[in-house]
Structures are given as structure tokens and as C-alpha cells.
């Protein structure tokens, strides 16, 4: 009797031990990764696209490339994405939108990238976004202009916090704080003849209408610009007391130099894109100061991490 009673008492404990052993065996018998699976984990995640590293848009694009490379270095130092290193493939589209489109197709079909890099500027993005849609790959556009985002695309979106159509909003906000008798009365708008220029021009014109500023010059020019003297001369002769130099770096530098050589000193100068990079001051010195822009980021802003980007 005692033996039977003892066996009955031990039965639950034996059942627990058997379950534990089986469960432990299940864990220990978890399929091991094959050499191929292990190797695949080490293969880099390819991220590719193009930038205008030469040509009329190169001055700004070189900083974008540095930004992409800085991100890749940071992410790889932290173990990469999904345990795999990141590798960038960046082609030079030479500021040519046709080449930008061709290179995007190349990284998709030949380089077999896992992710796409957004191109630059809006002229390239306009050409690249349909390619991304065609292959159903996410595309974070660096081109801040509304027309490309009104096409019903499903795979394209924008990274910049500002569209060109809002580019001068900050400037006009400042103008609105001034007493009416200190605000500019006449505007000269000099616009690069492309989708970015047209987008930024909208915000300039809207502000002029809001604050009753008469547009006395509204000219367009093609890039690259060889000389800004005739454009600036026309602005000065019109009596414009605010100048909108609605262009990129190279043409922006030429415009400011023409202002100085012609002794044209309006109440305010707004420059769209070119003045946002450090080379603006290295090229123009003191003449490059006191110029307004619509950029959301600048190397002199007192934000954490800015020093790492310089």
C-alpha cells in the first residue's frame, strides 16, 4: 500500500519533469541557420540613386551627398539596418534630368538596390518619380514643389518640411511685423526658368499680393547664368526696394555681385536656394550677409547635432 501511495504521489512530478525535458528538447532542436542564411545576413542593404555632383546644381548637391554618407556611417556604426550594413550607390547625373531618370532605372534593374535615394533638385525628381512608381519602390523626393505631388503617385513622398510654394513664408512673416511705412513697396523678381523657380515664385507673388507690394520686374532666366548684370540693372532702374533672387548658388552669387558693382541696395534681398550652404560666404564675404532665404536648416543654427553636419 505504501508503495502504491508513493507512486501516486510521484506521478505528477514525473509528468512535469517529462514535459520540461520535451520542451527543453524543442528549444535545443531549433533549426540552425545554414551558412547561406548567415552569409545573406552579412550582405549589405543597397540604397541607390543619383545626384548632380557636377554641373549647375552641384554646389548644393555635394552637401546632400555628404548628408547621405554621414547617415550611412552613423547607421553602420550602430550595427546597420536589420543587422546588415548599409551601402550607398550614388551616380553623378551631371545636373541632367534625363540622366537622373536613367540612373534611377539602372539602380533598380541592374544594381538591384533594396531602397532608393531621393534625387535633387526638383527637376531631377520630376523625372525620377514616375520611374519609382513604375517599379513600385518608395521614393523620398528632395524636390520641394507641389506639381509632382499632385499626380496621384502611391510610392512617392516628400522629405523636405517645406514646398517651394511656401518658400518665402518666413520672409513675409517678418515683413508683416514691420510698421507699414517700413515695408517694401516695389518688388523685382528674377526667377530661374525651371520647376523649382516656378514653385518658389508662387510664394513670392502671394506675399506681394498680401502686403500690397507692386511687382515691377518679373523676369525669368535659363541656367547656367553667365552674367546677372542686365537683370540687376533692370531691377535697379525699376525702383524696386526688395529684390527676389529666385535661383540657386551660382546664379545667386552672380546676382549679389552685380548688386554690389551697380551699387544697388534695396531694403531687402531674398535668395531662394544658393545662400543656404557655407560656400555662399566664402564666395561673397560680407556681401553675402543680410540675405533672406526660406531654408529649414542652416549650418549656423544653434541646434543639437548641427556641429556634426558642418
Task: Give a written overview of the molecule.
The protein is α/β, with parallel strands linked by helices. It folds into two domains: 38-160, Response regulator (Rossmann fold); 165-288, Rossmann fold (3-Layer(aba) Sandwich), CATH 3.40.50. The protein is 45% helix and 15% strand. The chain has eleven helices and nine strands. A four-stranded parallel sheet has the order 7-6-8-9, with helices on both faces. A three-stranded parallel sheet has the order 2-1-3, sandwiched between helices. The chain has a two-stranded parallel sheet with strand order 4-5. The termini are far apart. Residues 1-30 have low confidence and may be disordered.
Helices, strands, pairings?
Blueprint: H1 2-28, H2 35-42, E1 45-51, H3 58-77, E2 86-92, H4 97-109, E3 115-116, H5 122-134, E4 139-141, E5 156-158, H6 169-177, E6 186-192, H7 195-210, E7 214-221, H8 229-237, E8 242-246, H9 249-261, E9 268-271, H10 279-284, H11 306-309
Parallel strand pairs: 1-2, 1-3, 4-5, 6-7, 6-8, 8-9
Helix pairs in contact: 4-5, 8-9
Amino acid at each position: 500500500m505504501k508503495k502504491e501511495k508513493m507512486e501516486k504521489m510521484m506521478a505528477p512530478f514525473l509528468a512535469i519533469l517529462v514535459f520540461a525535458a520535451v520542451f527543453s528538447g524543442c528549444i535545443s532542436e531549433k533549426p540552425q541557420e545554414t551558412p547561406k542564411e548567415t552569409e545573406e545576413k552579412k550582405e549589405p542593404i543597397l540604397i541607390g540613386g543619383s545626384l548632380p555632383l557636377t554641373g549647375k546644381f552641384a554646389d548644393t548637391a555635394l552637401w546632400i551627398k555628404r548628408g547621405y554618407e554621414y547617415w550611412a556611417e552613423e547607421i553602420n556604426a550602430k550595427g546597420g539596418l536589420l543587422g546588415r550594413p548599409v551601402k550607398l550607390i550614388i551616380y553623378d547625373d551631371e545636373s541632367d534630368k534625363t540622366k537622373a531618370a536613367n540612373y534611377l532605372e539602372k539602380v533598380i534593374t541592374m544594381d538591384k538596390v533594396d531602397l532608393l535615394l531621393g534625387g535633387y533638385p526638383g527637376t531631377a525628381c520630376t523625372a525620377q518619380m514616375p520611374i519609382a512608381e513604375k517599379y513600385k519602390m518608395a521614393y523620398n523626393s528632395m524636390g520641394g514643389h507641389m506639381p509632382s505631388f499632385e499626380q496621384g503617385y502611391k510610392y512617392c513622398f516628400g522629405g523636405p518640411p517645406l514646398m517651394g510654394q511656401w518658400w518665402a513664408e518666413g520672409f513675409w512673416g517678418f515683413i508683416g511685423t514691420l510698421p507699414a511705412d517700413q515695408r517694401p513697396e516695389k518688388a523685382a523678381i528674377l526667377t530661374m526658368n525651371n520647376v523649382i523657380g516656378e514653385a518658389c515664385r508662387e510664394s513670392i507673388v502671394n506675399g506681394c499680393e498680401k502686403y500690397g507690394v507692386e511687382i515691377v520686374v518679373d523676369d525669368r532666366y535659363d541656367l547656367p547664368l553667365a552674367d546677372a548684370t542686365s537683370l540687376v540693372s533692370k531691377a535697379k532702374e525699376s525702383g524696386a526696394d526688395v529684390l527676389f533672387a529666385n535661383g540657386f548658388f551660382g546664379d545667386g552669387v552672380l546676382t549679389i555681385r552685380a548688386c554690389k558693382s551697380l551699387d544697388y541696395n534695396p531694403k531687402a534681398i531674398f535668395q531662394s536656394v544658393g545662400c543656404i550652404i557655407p560656400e555662399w560666404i566664402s564666395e561673397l564675404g560680407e556681401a553675402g550677409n543680410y540675405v533672406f532665404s526660406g531654408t529649414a536648416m542652416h549650418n549656423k543654427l544653434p541646434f543639437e547635432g548641427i556641429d556634426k553636419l558642418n
